[in-house]
Amino acid sequence: MRSAQSTSLTLTRIAASTLVAVALLSACGSKDAAQAGPGAGAKMPPPQVGVITTKFQQVAIETELPARVEAIRTAEVRARVSGVVLKRLFTEGSIVKQGQSLFQIDPAPYQAQVNAAQAALGRAQANLTSTAATAERYKPLVEANAVSKQEFTNAVALQKQAEADVTSARAQLRIAKLNADYANVFAPISGRIGRALVTEGALVSSTEATQMALIQQTDSVYLNITQSASELQNLRKKAGNKGIDSALPVSVVMDDGTELGRKGKLLFSDVTVDPTSGQVTLRAEVSNQDAALLPGQYVRVRLAQAELPSGIVVPQQAVTRGGQAGDTVMVVGADNKPTPRTVKIASQEGANWVITDGLKEGERVMVDGFQKLQMMPPGTPVQPVAWTPQNASTPAAAAGTPAAQPNAAGATATAAAAGARTPAAGSPAAGATTPGQSRQ
């Protein structure tokens, strides 16, 4: 009897435990379903990516080359007479004018030479006066046979010798005056003068042509550009073997990567190749009124030396450089699936690459949205939209709100239309970024 009652009690307890477990599981399932909401089973829309549509166009092949700045005119101020420097008459680093006095060399020895030359000229002129009078007096006497013809001939010869002595004395006086003038050193050209290479009290020599200062005219400067001879020939072939225009505009890129606000022009291309480096020299000229370029400075220049008959221009951010397959881009096909494509880059055009092989006209190339694909399995379809450059004019972002990436606003609107809900604060998904709002 006791055994039957125990068995019945055990079965009753098992049945009650089962009912409690089923009730708990049902309650958990209802709670999870309530938290998930009606959109829990909705499929996420494909991620939006910015694309451009390719088209062929005639593009200039822009080349970036190294260059050195050179003053358009340079003059070395050197001593033309020997002596001791008495004064420096300019401010170092200032602008000097042509003919301005720069140094004063001791003029006393040269002034003494001027005085001696003047005395020698006076003596020669006195001798000429005497000999000329003698020849004039002998002239009627020789006709009357009062003096011999030999004596008259000698008198005429002495007169001519005295005339030559006067001419020589005048030349010596001119030389002495020039040396006295050279004691005052003048600027041969206008320009900016550097530091003085000699000081007061220094002895300078005309035989050694002692350099005293350097003047450089930098209101315009030359750019001596070097380029590989083989590269120059290839560019000429691409341009149809046409000669490079000597008036091509030249852009100057400074050391910090900024571009000079004004352009120069190409003057000529050398016809001789340097046998040691295999390079040719091109020369350009650019205005430099603000002294932004200094002689000897290293810069880079950009110039379009040829034009391609057709090429495709894509933004640099759309191209992956130097991969195992070379340079690649992501092309969105007709099924909206992005696939990599190997391309050939010919040159750079500002912030774009010029592609000459690997793309066809009318294809869609991805420019942004690459990070969205990293969260998706390969072969995931995307929603391509027209790409807008970041520097294009867009509505200002609200204060305190990060600026959205291009095309992100459209992705947010699409997600809202699909019924997606923003997670409640405090939920595990709160603060997560939706695919349409991810940054590139």
What does this structure look like?
With 440 residues, the protein is an alpha+beta fold. The protein has 4 domains: 48-59 and 311-420, Beta Barrel (conserved putative lor/sdh protein from methanococcus maripaludis s2 fold), CATH 2.40.420.20; 62-71 and 218-309, Beta Barrel (Elongation Factor Tu (Ef-tu), domain 3); 80-105 and 186-209, RNA polymerase II/Efflux pump adaptor protein, barrel-sandwich hybrid domain (OB fold (Dihydrolipoamide Acetyltransferase, E2P)), CATH 2.40.50; 107-182, Helix hairpin bin (Helix Hairpins, Orthogonal Bundle), CATH 1.10.287. Helix content is 30%, strand content 32%. The chain contains 6 helices and 20 strands. The strands form 3 sheets. Strands 1, 14, 15, 16, 19 and 20 form a 6-stranded mixed β-sheet that branches. A 6-stranded antiparallel barrel has the order 2-9-12-11-10-13. Helix 2 (108-143) packs antiparallel against helix 3. The longest helix has 36 residues, at 108-143. The radius of gyration is 46 Å and the shape is elongated. It starts with a helix and ends in a 23-residue tail after the last helix. The model is unreliable at 1-6, 29-41 and 392-440 (pLDDT under 50).
Q: Key features?
A:
6 helices, alpha+beta, single chain, conserved putative lor/sdh protein from methanococcus maripaludis s2 fold, 32% strand, disordered C terminus, 6-stranded antiparallel β-barrel, 440 residues, 4 domains, 6-stranded mixed sheet, Elongation Factor Tu (Ef-tu), domain 3, OB fold (Dihydrolipoamide Acetyltransferase, E2P), elongated
